[in-house]
Design brief:
This protein has 259 residues and is of the alpha/beta class. It has one domain (2-257): TIM Barrel. The protein contains nine helices and eight strands. It has helices at residues 17-26, 41-53, 76-87, 109-126, 138-149, 164-172, 189-195, 227-237, 242-257; strands spanning 2-6, 31-37, 58-62, 92-101, 130-135, 155-157, 176-179, 203-205. An eight-stranded parallel β-sheet has the order 1-2-3-4-5-6-7-8. The two termini are 14 Å apart.
Length: 259
């Protein structure tokens, strides 16, 4: 299995990182993709520690829409910061997480758009996949991906919680759809109905840890080992075997991120 999106460089894992990595490997995880906030030196230092503990780990680097306001003076600088950190991070395989978030609006929407566009342009330039965060902004997110992707962009909608229209649009663009612990929640039946229409060869699995722990760990800190529960839930939805679904989603990860 692979956790295709986790925040192991977060402060939540500083004290017991060694044990968290050990539990993930004991649970059968091949690797994880760790999401790093571009320009965050503390996270970069913890990423170095993660790589020493687990050399198969890969990284994604990006400016989240919540942090777009940090580049109000020059939105293009966001892509510059990402570019510089990519060059200094040999294990980096993607740009992300990037996108739009209209739920919190921590950054002005116009600024979110500008920062997002610059990073999508960088992804095309570098031939790297994008890891997309979209919340209550689906139409604008899709518009920017289409405008800047030029039909040649690879990527994934992470922690998917959308409906059939968003799933169909992402699939039509050639994107993957990644599911986190929310898919195990009792009240997530609408999401499960949407997931059933997504071909297995376009699915990824993630934890988004330390957030969104799956059933039966809700309310606790999430961690990569819990991706086992996501894989199990997806296998049940598709009427298959968890081990086989894990193998197939692993193959999807390799196709997208070329680790």
């Amino acid at each position: 299995m692979i956790d295709s999106h986790c925040h192991l460089a977060d402060d939540a894992f500083t004290a017991d990182l060694d044990a968290v990595v050990a539990r993930a490997r004991d649970a059968g995880l091949e690797r994880v993709l760790v999401i790093l906030e571009a320009g965050n030196e503390k996270e970069a230092a913890q990423a170095d520690r993660i790589e020493r503990l687990w050399p198969e780990t890969r990284m994604a680097i990006g400016v989240h829409p919540h942090q777009a306001h940090q580049f109000a003076d020059d939105p293009a600088r966001a892509a510059f910061v990402v570019r510089e950190q990519l060059a200094a991070t040999p294990s980096a395989r993607a740009i992300g997480e990037i996108g739009l978030d209209y739920h919190y609006d921590y950054s002005p929407r116009e600024l979110q758009h500008a920062v997002f566009r610059r990073q999508v342009q960088l992804a095309r330039e570098r031939d790297l996949p994008v890891v997309i965060h979209t919340r209550e902004a689906d139409e604008d997110t899709l518009t920017i991906l289409r405008d800047e992707g030029g039909g040649r962009l690879r990527g994934v909608l992470h922690c998917f919680t959308g409906g059939p229209a968003l799933a169909d649009a992402a699939l039509a663009m050639g994107f993957y759809i990644s599911l986190a612990g929310i898919v195990t929640f009792p009240r997530a039946e609408e999401l499960r109905q949407t997931v059933r229409r997504v071909p297995i060869d376009r699915l990824l699995t993630e934890t988004d840890s330390p957030f969104l722990a799956p059933v039966p760990f809700r309310g606790k800190r999430n961690e990569p080992a819990n991706v086992v529960n996501v894989v199990g839930a997806l296998a049940e939805m598709h009427g298959g075997d968890a081990a086989e679904l894990g193998r197939r989603t692993n193959a999807n990860f390799h196709r997208l991120f070329r680790p």
